[in-house]
Design goal:
Elements lengths: L8 H7 L26 H9 L13 H13 L4 E5 L2 H12 L5 E5 L4 H9 L7 E5 L4 H7 L4 E7 L11 H11 L2 E5 L4 H4 L9 E5 L13 E5 L2 H14 L5 H11 L2 H20 L4 E5 L9 H7 L6 E6 L2 H11 L4 E2 L9 E3 L11 H7 L6 E4 L5 H13 L2
Helix pairs in contact: 1-3, 3-10, 4-5, 4-9, 13-15
Length: 395
C-alpha cells in the first residue's frame, strides 16, 4: 500500500484526507449536511456510544465531511489526529480548557494574537490561572518565568503582528526538561512553510480562517496533536464545549486547502519583493519580514521554516499619523483585519487586532503605534507596488 505521506507537499495538499466515494465515485467530498445519523439497530447504537464500534452518531461528535478536513490537515502537520473547530478562538479556548486548571500557570509569546492573550488575562484568571507573556524569541526570558505550577508554553512563530520568530526546537527542549506542554500557533506559516510537531511541539493549532481556507469567506480553527493521549483529551473537551465545525464550513475550508501550496508560493513571492522595496523606500523607517537578511532571526527562519511567508510589518518615519494616512490612501490593498487570503489586506494592530491589550503590554511586545501589518495576497506584484507607492506619496 502506498505511503501517501511520502508524496511531495504540493501533491499532498490536493489529495490528503479524502478518497473518491465508493458508491458514487464523487471526486469532491460530499457535504453531509445532517445533524444526526440513523442506527441500523439499538445494539449498533449502544456499541457506537460505548466506543466499541466506529461510526457516526451526531455531527457535534463527528461527521464524514469534517473528518475529511481533519485527516487532511493532520497529515500535512504530521500529527496523529486533528479537531476542526467553529472559529480560531474555539481552537485556542479548547486547548486552554483542556490543559489549564485552577493553580496552573501559562507562559506565552508577548506578541500573541490579541484575543488569545486577552482571554487568559481577563477570563481564565477568574478561575485561578496565572500567566506571563514574554519575548519568547529570547529563550532565557522563558526560563526565567518557569514556576513549579507552569503547565503550558504557548508560542506563536512568526508572531502576530511583529513577525518575531521563536526557536521551536529550543522551546521543545525547555518544555521537555520542565514537564511542560508546548503549543504552537502555526497560523502565520501554515503547514506548507512550517511543521512544529516535527520540531518537538506537542500541539499545533491554526485559525483556518487564514491561509488554510484562504478565500476570506469562512471562519474556523483546527487543533493537531502529536500523541493519541492529548488528542483524546482535546476531543473530549471540544465535544463538551460544543465549538465544533459545521459540515458546509468544513467543505469550504477543504476546498480552500487544495490550493494552499499555490497561494502560499505566489503570496510569498510578492511579499519578498515588496519587503525589499519597502526597506529601501525613503519614507519607511523599518521593515520586519523574516525573508530579509536584516531580520534578527533570518538564520532561524532558514533553519525551521521552508520559506518566510507573506506577512510583513513595517513603520513609517512619520509615525502614527503617517501610518493612518497610508492605510486610508490605499486603493487596491483592502483595509481590513484578518490575513492569509488571496487578496492583500492592510491594518493597524495597535488600534484594531490588539486594541484589547494594554498600551504598556503592547509596547513590551513590540506592537508600536506606527506598526502597519500587511498580509500580502496573490495579485500582480506590479499592481501592489503601484498602490503602496501612491499611498506613500500621500504621507
Amino acid at each position: 500500500m502506498e505511503d501517501k505521506s511520502q508524496r511531495n507537499l504540493e501533491t499532498q495538499v490536493i489529495h490528503a484526507g479524502y478518497e473518491p466515494d465508493k458508491v458514487t465515485r464523487s471526486v469532491s467530498p460530499p457535504i453531509y449536511q445532517t445533524s444526526t445519523f440513523a442506527f441500523e439497530s439499538a445494539e449498533q447504537g449502544a456499541a457506537l456510544f460505548a466506543g466499541k464500534e466506529k461510526g457516526y452518531i451526531y455531527t457535534r461528535l463527528s461527521n464524514p465531511t469534517i473528518e475529511a478536513l481533519e485527516q487532511a490537515v493532520a497529515s500535512l502537520e504530521k500529527g496523529v489526529g486533528a479537531l476542526a473547530t467553529s472559529t480560531g478562538m474555539a481552537a485556542v479556548s479548547t486547548v486552554y480548557f483542556s490543559l489549564l486548571e485552577n493553580g496552573t500557570h501559562l507562559i506565552g509569546t508577548a506578541a500573541l494574537y490579541g484575543a488569545s492573550r486577552t482571554i487568559i488575562e481577563t477570563e481564565f484568571v477568574r478561575y485561578g490561572v496565572t500567566s506571563d507573556f514574554v519575548d519568547t524569541s529570547n529563550l532565557d526570558e522563558i526560563k526565567k518565568k518557569i514556576r513549579k505550577n507552569t503547565r503550558l508554553l504557548y508560542i506563536e512563530s512568526p508572531a502576530n503582528p511583529t513577525m518575531a520568530l521563536t526557536d521551536i526546537q529550543g522551546c521543545a527542549q525547555i518544555a521537555k526538561e520542565h514537564g511542560l506542554i508546548l503549543v504552537v500557533d502555526n497560523t502565520f506559516a501554515s503547514p506548507v512553510l512550517q511543521n512544529p510537531l516535527e520540531l518537538g511541539a506537542d500541539i499545533v493549532l491554526h485559525s483556518v480562517t487564514k491561509f488554510i481556507n484562504g478565500h476570506t469567506d469562512v471562519v474556523g480553527g483546527i487543533i493537531i496533536s502529536k500523541t493519541e493521549e492529548l488528542y483524546k483529551r482535546l476531543a473530549s473537551v471540544l465535544h463538551l464545549l460544543g465549538g465544533t465545525m459545521d459540515p458546509h464550513q468544513a467543505w469550504l475550508v477543504l476546498r480552500g486547502l487544495r490550493t494552499l501550496y499555490l497561494r502560499v508560493e505566489k503570496a510569498q513571492d510578492n511579499a519578498g519583493k515588496l519587503a525589499s522595496w519597502l526597506e529601501s523606500h525613503p519614507k519607511v523607517a523599518w521593515v520586519n519580514y523574516p525573508g530579509l537578511p536584516s531580520h534578527p532571526q533570518f538564520e532561524l527562519m532558514k533553519k525551521q521554516m521552508k520559506g518566510p511567508g507573506s506577512m510583513i510589518s513595517f513603520g513609517l518615519k512619520g509615525g502614527y499619523e503617517a501610518g493612518l494616512k497610508l492605510i486610508n490612501s490605499v486603493k487596491l490593498c483592502t483595509l481590513a483585519v484578518s490575513l492569509g487570503g488571496i487578496e492583500t489586506l492592510i491594518e493597524h494592530p495597535a488600534s484594531m487586532t490588539h486594541a484589547g491589550v494594554s498600551r504598556e503590554e503592547k509596547e513590551k511586545a513590540g506592537i508600536t503605534d506606527d506598526l502597519i501589518r500587511l498580509s500580502v495576497g496573490c495579485e500582480a506584484y506590479e499592481d501592489l507596488k503601484a498602490d503602496l507607492e501612491q499611498a506613500l506619496d500621500q504621507c
